[in-house]
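Progress against Task 2.4 (sequence-to-structure conversion) is shown through the following example record, which the project officer requested during the mid-term review.
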Amino acid sequence: MGERLFRASTLAAIVMALMLVSGTFAPVLAQENAEDLDDSGLYLELNPEIDMSIALEGEFHQFESDSELSFEEREPNSNSDEDSDFLRVFPPDTRQRISPTTHFPASATTFIEGGFSGGFNHCSGTFIGPNVVLTAAHCIFVHELGGWMNNQLVVPGADGNHAPFGYQYAAWGWVPDGWIQTGDLFYDVGLLVLPDSTLGNQVGWFDLAIFTNQTLLSPTFNPGTAGYPADKPFATMWMTTEPSFLDVDDALLYNRLDSYFGQSGSSVWRNSDGYIAGVLSFETDKFNAARRINEDVVAAFITVCDDLNCSFSYAVEQPAPPVQPPPSTGDAPVFASGPDVQRAVDNFGNTRDRTDFPIDAGQVNRTWMWGPGSFSTAIEEPYGNAPDGTRIVQYFDKSRMEDNQYRASPPWHVTNGLLVMELVTGRMQIGDNEFVNRAPANVQVAGDSHPDSPTYAMLDPLRSWGHLPVGSQVTQRLNADGTVSSDSSLSGRGVTAAHYVPETDHTVASVFWNFMNSSGPVQTHQGTVHGPLFENPFFATGFPITEAYWVHVPVGGQWQDVLLQCFQRRCLTYTPGNSAGWQVEAGNVGQHYYRWRYGDAQPHP
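Structure tokens generated for the chain above:
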């Protein structure tokens, strides 16, 4: 991103930082018995009239006025000694004051004050990027006070009336439509965007994280939070931890982290690495609740930063892939014989020639869709719905062709399998609804051979990642460790989310959608004619199973940014540095799948 990046990346870093600023640290604190909670774990009911799919589409507000009163002259809000309406402390009070506040992570925790016609509204927040602060929606847009705050003062590391890094007024605020329209607390998350990166580059910022339910429900997750509760001296920072959450659901993290009015908007993070899992929002008599950071929240934030020129860091949890059996354990291919073999092979050749014969003949300069030719002879593979339980297939560099003449007419009498799905999930298909469970493929998807290149196994958690809205810039980067981050510099590539596919809830990137709908020389029974490359845009690829991600991989020995998007049948790449006809290419999934299924076995007798 070009700016200085601070990370709370290890347990030692965050524990030592908190010990420096507070003098003590209690990683495990007493927690009351949670048996009085609902046995079902469902504490609140969603309003059935709310459309969750659009609730996180949001609205921007530009703040126009600053207060004439400096932060040093501020006094506590006149309402600060009233009982909390949003958060509560569960006796015994385990909060500890953090002072001084000049070390990360305390430095990136912010005091927020919003001005309205009758006074000030006091909240907390956290830097998640050089000029963007995460907080609660009810800190920015307050229905009871008439809507948007007049201004938003952001004071990182406030320590009483002392502002060690100075302060700024936010330029923009954002909250979800679901909050504005309904005030429903399930949508209680918001962003403040500052006019520049002056403060963020001084104080650092946290990373967001999309955790699995399994991780969040761990009895040793050890969530923590810090902020500015109004029952303590004005603008003083207080921190607490708990061993675990009480429960989680798709939208909320239920907890007993001691909090109070004024601490709304505080982040809830995992103490082992500082990744933010949620935002404190509201309370009941049994628990406090934090709005969970999930795919929808991060997707909404990406759209915000595309529009407001901000950036933030986030990661998607990647489970450790199962150990892949060595290639020598692969099955042995059964080579096909009999009267139907030549007919099937001829049909395979005709299907391949439609797009690839004009390349053979030098009539067009574009990527192969199948490859220069097959690299295997005809093979019989088990398929429960085929006659006699087997069907004829043949492997090409970029796919596997399958003989389906027993149940389909042209062009569907030849199909190319859902090989990418099998490689990513580890579920090898042997019938319409029959599978053999194997390990996902630790086989490289794109670029030259290198340990930092992405693998099919790495992509499995990304299948559940929500879609980018059509028209948004594709700036998501898949890192070597399997995490995903947002890199605003990639917006200069000009790639957008172009076509939404509801069947898999993913959006095809513009460069790939253009290719899938392109025309050019194709081979037919009439010879070479000009026509669409594919009779259906999804014929060769299937539906997308991931969003498009930028990866940094070696290509021809040179490290480059390459856009990767995987579909059910193919993975497509876009390499801006390639010549025009070869910028979009189909990966060698046929080779990869054969190696995953058969190991070192020869592809011919």
